[in-house]
């Protein structure tokens, strides 16, 4: 029978820990590498919902994209939120393994899974980080045929898991787009890279007002206007990676270990309300 250590080896081959950013916390959080593993659950977030799903489903390992203990801690007492989760994992005999920014930069990685969900063939990274031009943050690709920004926004909404946040875009709805950049998770640090790449649209998550506004004013590069923006929920942009990571495990163990994907929506936003589109509304009138 495969061990937890065997599964970790397969995951770290696909997502080398050396690719993680210096501030990140990746790898085994809890669990015995010698323990046998036959079932694994893969999720974006290691939260109460996904931990209970792992326990109830008989998994011996939860693989998450986001770390549970990203900031330094001095203890994990059971009367504190994260300590309670660690105790639940340990008492249930479930290990926790995290692949975060190393999965972001791996080839294939988080943004490859996002691009595949969108039907976008990848040509390379948006922000290369090695001489081969294969590793790095984000991905660039070209749609098989041009489509409008409005159609691409609808494509994203149909391809990704539904959230209260939904999908929003900045730019002319009729603008034709074909060359696309994507970045799973918060991607406003790569706005300048999207401009330099000369893409028609940049899809990422967690775009803030001022960086987005300043991006749209930047003017693009000669002959190409500033890329339009499509902003999706952070959780939704990274969820396609779960199937990729599960496939890494299933392909490595060929039935001896069964990896499945959690579809529990752990996006923190639970409600959304539309508003009238007219800008003429004036509550003071």
Account of the protein in words:
The chain has ten helices and eleven strands. It is α/β, with parallel strands linked by helices. The chain folds into two domains: 4-103, Udp-n-acetylmuramoylalanyl-d-glutamate--2,6- Diaminopimelate Ligase, Chain: A, domain 1, CATH 3.40.1390.30; 107-236, NIF3 (NGG1p interacting factor 3)-like (Udp-n-acetylmuramoylalanyl-d-glutamate--2,6- Diaminopimelate Ligase, Chain: A, domain 1). It has helices at 4-14, 48-56, 81-92, 101-105, 110-117, 149-159, 191-197, 209-217, 234-238, 240-253; strands at 27-30, 39-43, 61-64, 95-98, 122-128, 136-148, 167-170, 176-186, 201-205, 228-232, 258-261. α3 links the parallel β3 (61-64) and β4. Helices cover 32% and strands 23% of the residues. α1 (4-14) packs across α10 (240-253) and α5 crosses α10 (240-253). The strands form two sheets. It has a six-stranded mixed sheet. Strands 1-4-3-2-11 form a five-stranded mixed sheet, sandwiched between helices.
Our Rg estimate from Cα atoms comes to 20 Å
Helix content: 25-40%
Order of helices and strands: HEEHEHEHHEEHEEHEHEHHE
Number of strands: 11
CATH-wise, what's the superfamily of the largest domain? NIF3 (NGG1p interacting factor 3)-like
Q: What number of domains?
A: 2
Spatial gap, N to C terminus: 72 Å
Strand order of the largest sheet: 5-6-8-9-10-7
Derived from helix and strand composition plus strand pairing, the structural class reads alpha/beta
Main β sheet profile = 6 strands, mixed
Unreliable stretches covering 5 or more consecutive residues: none
Which fold does the CATH topology of the largest domain refer to? Udp-n-acetylmuramoylalanyl-d-glutamate--2,6- Diaminopimelate Ligase, Chain: A, domain 1
CATH structural architecture of the largest domain? 3-Layer(aba) Sandwich
Identify the overall geometry.
globular
Strand content: 15-25%
Overall residue-averaged pLDDT value: 94
CATH class of the largest domain: Alpha Beta
Count the DSSP helices: 10
Oligomer: single chain
Keywords: Metal-binding
Pfam family, one: DUF34_NIF3
Subunit structure: Homohexamer.
Protein name: GTP cyclohydrolase 1 type 2 homolog
């Amino acid at each position: 029978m495969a061990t937890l250590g065997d599964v970790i080896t397969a995951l770290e081959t696909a997502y080398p820990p050396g690719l993680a950013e210096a501030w990140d916390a990746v790898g085994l959080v809890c669990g015995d590498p010698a323990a046998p593993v036959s079932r694994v659950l893969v999720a974006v977030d290691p939260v109460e919902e996904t931990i209970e799903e792992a326990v109830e489903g008989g998994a011996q390992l939860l693989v998450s994209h986001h770390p549970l203990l990203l900031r330094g801690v001095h203890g994990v007492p059971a009367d504190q939120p994260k300590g309670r989760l660690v105790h639940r994992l340990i008492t249930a005999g479930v290990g926790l393994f995290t692949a975060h920014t190393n999965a972001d930069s791996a080839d294939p990685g988080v943004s490859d899974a996002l691009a595949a969900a969108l039907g976008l063939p990848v040509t390379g990274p948006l922000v290369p980080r090695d001489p081969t031009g294969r590793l790095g943050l984000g991905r660039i690709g070209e749609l098989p045929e041009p489509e409008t920004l409005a159609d691409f926004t609808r494509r994203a909404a149909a391809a990704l898991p539904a959230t209260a946040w939904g999908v929003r875009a900045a730019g002319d709805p009729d603008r034709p787009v074909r060359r696309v950049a994507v970045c799973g998770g918060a991607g406003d640090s790569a706005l300048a890279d999207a401009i330099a790449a000369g893409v028609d649209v940049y899809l990422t998550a967690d775009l803030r007002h001022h960086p987005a506004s300043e991006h749209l004013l930047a003017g693009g590069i000669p002959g190409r206007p500033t890329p339009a923006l499509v902003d999706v929920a952070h959780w939704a942009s990274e969820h396609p990676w779960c199937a990729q990571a599960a496939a890494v495990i299933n392909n490595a163990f060929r039935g001896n270990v069964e990896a499945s994907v959690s579809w529990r929506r752990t996006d923190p936003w639970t409600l959304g309300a539309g508003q009238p589109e007219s800008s003429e509304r004036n509550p003071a009138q």
